[in-house]
Amino acid sequence: MKILYLAHRVPYPPNKGDKIRTFNEIRCLGQNHEIDLLALADDPNDLSHKKKLETYCNRVNLFGLNIWKSRINSLAGLAIPFRPLSVSYFYNKKLQICLNQWMTEKTYDAVLCFSSPMAEYLFRCPALKETLTPRKPLSNSSQQVLIMDFCDVDSQKWNQYAANSRFPMSLIYEIEGRRLLEYEKIINHLFHHSVFVSTHEVEVFINLNKQAQKLTAVPNGVDHDYFSPDARFEPVPLREKEGQKVLVFTGAMDYYANVEGVSWFCRKVFPRIRSEHPDLLFYIVGSNPGPEVKALGDRQGVRVTGFVDDIRPYYR
User: Fold this and answer.
1) What was the pLDDT predicted at 186?
2) Are 229 and 316 in contact (CB under 8 A)?
3) Torsion angle (degrees, nearest 10) of CA 5, 8, 10, 16
4) DSSP result, 198-209
5) Rounded Cα–Cα distance for residues 170 and 159 (Å)
6) Cβ atoms 22, 9 nearer than 8 A
7) Residue 188 neighbours by CB distance under 10 Å
8) Which of 176, 263, 276, 295 gets the highest tally of CB atoms within 10 A of its CB?
9) What angle do CA 222, 227, 229 make, to 5 degrees?
């Protein structure tokens, strides 16, 4: 099959949740199918990974995403009724032009979008104008199978942000949650299939959208060989004295849910455990820890590492 894959972040290096999922989807699909990849780079360093991705794909084109410009576009999108701010944030005219060109050059058997804002590029693609619009269901005569990997129900994340934020951000997040949910419903109605990361996310979406159809849960997997305790990797001396017990949390430490999670754990749980195990250490391992996470390192027994080259010694 010929597959066009759209990703809202460059799927390499696979060092955070969404990039791990997109990279492995591409790696596995590329073994038996021809993949053309279009992706956005919110980190300029990710543009350098094009050649690496070309080992898995037939064609790769990456487009830089200016974060400040995207934020301005996102806020300006408030004035556009019903459009999610995320769509304005992740929209790039150069990627649209490339997509339109590729769609005329090749007949794809399938188009796979990762993350709901990437659907906008298909909605604006002239080659799909007659078969894919927010007002007209997808025709059975369409040559492409359209698949959306929502991963999570993102609209509900914005509702969570709204519940935990102060005005005016709480209002902005609430608007985004409401708009994005309606957008997710449109995508599910127009695309041939919708994929989520777990059965729980599928159930959440069904509860929010009683007309939801063609849903599948595709859980994240684990490379058992790479993450085997017997694999070769450089050890890291985590214990500061013999027999010491260690707890580890890993994840991108600029992600709200992770920051909230480790902060709550350090306040509410870790002191109670340490009262019975005074030598216990808690390692917070992940990239881009902000001031709130770094400050946790001042607590007794808490260690904040920041980015590490290899996560496996910490898991072991």
Assistant:
1) 95
2) yes
3) -120
4) SHHHHHHHHHH-
5) 9
6) yes
7) 20
8) 176
9) 140
Q: 155: burial class by Cβ within 10 Å (0-12, 13-18, 19+)?
A: buried
Q: What is the full DSSP assignment across 56-110?
A: T-SEEEEEE--HHHHHHHHHHGGGSTT--HHHHHH--HHHHHHHHHHHHH---SE
Cα distance between residue 284 and residue 292, in whole Å = 12
58-96 burial, b at 16+ Cβ within 10 Å, e below that, comes to ebbbbbebeeeebeebbeebeeeeebbbbbbbbbbeebb
What are the backbone angles phi and psi of residue 291, rounded to the nearest 5°? Answer: -55, -40
Average pLDDT rounded to a whole number, residues 39-48: 95
* pTM assigned to the model: 0.87
User: 177 pLDDT band (50/70/90 cuts)?
Assistant: very high
Closest CA to 56 of 21, 23, 8: 23
pLDDT in tens, 236-264: 999 988 889 999 999 999 988 899 999 99
Q: Residue 212 in contact with residue 194, Cβ under 8 Å?
A: yes
Written as one letter, the residue type at 189 is H
Neighbours of 128 (CB within 10 A): 21
Given the structure tokens 């959208």, which residue do they identify?
A: 209
Structure confidence at residue 229 (pLDDT):
84
Q: Which amino acid is at 53?
A: L
**Rounded-to-integer distance, Cα 293 and Cα 197, Å:** 27
Give the pairing of strands 145-151 and 193-196.
Answer: parallel
pLDDT of residue 316: 86
pLDDT higher for 9 or 229? 9
Strand order in the sheet with 215-217: 59-64, 34-41, 2-7, 110-114, 145-151, 193-196, 215-217
Q: d(Cα 22, Cα 132) in Å, to the nearest integer?
A: 24
The count of other CB atoms within 10 Å of the CB of residue 193 is 16
